[in-house]
Specification:
The longest helix has 12 residues. The protein folds into 2 domains: 128 residues, Trypsin-like serine proteases (Thrombin, subunit H, Beta Barrel), CATH 2.40.10.10; 110 residues, Trypsin-like serine proteases (Thrombin, subunit H, Beta Barrel), CATH 2.40.10.10. It is built from 4 helices and 16 strands. The chain is 11% helix and 31% strand. The radius of gyration is 17 Å and the shape is globular.
């Protein structure tokens, strides 16, 4: 498979990353915070798959983002840090993948990457304004209402582009989903999810490299709505890795900022 880029800015950095994506992330430096959908995750349904995309960085990073408007994406702030260029990885049916330009990135002003590195909750939320609208086959997702509550035992569906086997980059690049359950003490700053079968004690379903920024959907009779974004993961029993806990930054606390910023970026969202 051949890949082409929409422009030449950061060309040398992206050229190597394109080769990595062709090989399923092999050789790329994926964010460790939430590294991939492991534990036997299944391919995403058409409904959820039409809402998520992949963002690549010139430093060799890859993350998941959610379309919340025709030209507006939601992701984790740690996925789009200053000092690198970012592109949307897109493709048309029957055409090779193409890197598409990003017009602007807005990170929540309270995001503190030092807190994230120290395993503390922070405003890990960002919006990406695209240079051109997504193809019509994409369907923007709804953001959950500000009054949504979360309790232990609630189910969420996480959808991302990470690898299915930790350390095996060849297994990445496809949209997959995992149904996970809330554990611990969910609050407005952080939600912890785990595989209801393994309960975080042995390797199970969970986020890993490439799933940072992925949406955590609440599925209801009204359809799926994004309640949070993936920020980090652990291995079983809180070890380093994947397949244990999946950490989500809930959106309710930051919903006002998302709506205000989307309006300023020229893509107003439904309140």
């Amino acid at each position: 498979m051949h890949l082409r880029t929409a422009d030449r800015r950061g060309g040398k950095h992206f050229a190597g990353l394109l080769l990595a994506v062709t090989a399923g992330f092999a050789g790329s430096q994926l964010p460790w915070h939430a590294q991939a959908m492991v534990g036997g995750a299944t391919p995403a349904s058409a409904e959820l798959g039409r809402s998520i995309v992949m963002i690549l960085g010139s430093a060799g990073t890859a993350c998941t983002a959610t379309a919340i408007g025709r030209d507006l994406l939601l992701t984790a702030a740690h996925c789009v840090q200053p000092g690198a260029d970012y592109k949307l990885l897109g493709s048309e049916p029957g055409q090779p993948p193409v890197l598409k330009a990003i017009a602007r990135i807005e990170r929540h002003p309270q995001f503190d990457i030092k807190r994230l590195f120290n395993h503390l909750a922070t405003a890990d939320v960002a919006l990406i304004k695209l240079a051109e609208p997504l193809p019509t086959r994409f369907s923007p997702a709804l953001i959950a209402g500000g009054s949504e509550t979360v309790a232990v035992g609630d189910s969420f569906v996480v959808a991302g582009y990470g690898v299915t086997v930790r350390g095996d980059g060849r297994t990445g690049g496809a949209a997959r989903v995992a149904t996970l359950v809330v554990t611990g003490q969910p609050g407005s700053l952080q939600i912890r999810l785990f595989d209801p079968v393994n309960k975080g004690l042995s390797a199970g379903l969970g986020a890993c490299a490439g799933d940072s920024g992925a949406p955590a959907f609440r599925i209801s009779g009204a359809g799926p709505a994004v309640l949070g974004v993936v920020s980090w993961s652990t291995g079983p029993n809180l070890t380093v890795g994947c397949g244990g806990l999946t950490g989500v930054t809930p959106l309710a606390r930051y919903r006002g900022w998302i709506l205000d910023t989307a309006r300023k970026l020229g893509t107003p969202l439904a309140p």
